[in-house]
Amino acid sequence: MFPAPRSRFELELAGRTVSLGERTLVMGVLNCTPDSFSDGGLYLSPDEVARRLAEIEEEGADWCDIGGESSRPGAEPVTADEEWRRVAPAFAAATRLGSRLLLSIDTTKAEVARRALEEGAAVINDISGLRFDPALADLAARGKAGLVLMHMRGDPRTMQQDPRYDDVVAEIKRELASAADEAGRRGVRREQILLDPGLGFGKTVEHNLTVIRHLPALAAAGHPLLIGASRKSFIGRVLGGEVCDRLEGSLAVHVAAALAGAHVVRAHDVRATVRAVRMADAVRGAG
To answer: Which of 22, 178, 250, 283 has the most CB atoms around it within 10 Å of its CB?
Structure first.
């Protein structure tokens, strides 16, 4: 069926209700890192961070995902204290600016997530799917926060070293379902959990394309679906060019995701993505 059906969800996030499914939400990326693959080093000072946060809101995002540790292939980990030092100015700026954006913390560390929830984050975005620090689920449960569980094989240092699957879609579905079950056992309500198949994380170009072709099956898994294709290397492999040449490919994947039933797309190029998924939603029609 085209477009694919999209379920609706109501997330109760720290006293705020977020509706998913009526339209495609856009999560803007704010990387407060020196070494992220696309925008590392751009948003390091408090003034730069505040300026970009305001831009993300002005460009029409619904959500801002704030991260202080690069997850590019080969990236080295940083300490919790250093990660928090990098992201703290973003949460301070959101408070100072009175931002309407839903805020998430992109981290695999419970200590960083705890501080972020105290400073206004409503969602924890865990690229490890609870494999690195299961206590993230405990925090989400206690704080009534959302929890994004992403699929990744290995870790950022090793994930692109010959990733292999017998059936990439079935294995992603199974491993994400296991992570969601673990979150549930730790007290996270089912309706607070979002799933992300992890495009670009431990997957070859063909793995990523196969996942995109089968997004309707992932969108029907009983949880809201988040897709992050923005500027990923598999787009460069298909189209050629450097990171700065991947806008059209990123938009194409995010439109495909919206039509396939995804609820949220994660993007660096916010204004263009907002307009692209608005058009995709018009094609979808109501529901």
So the answer is: 250
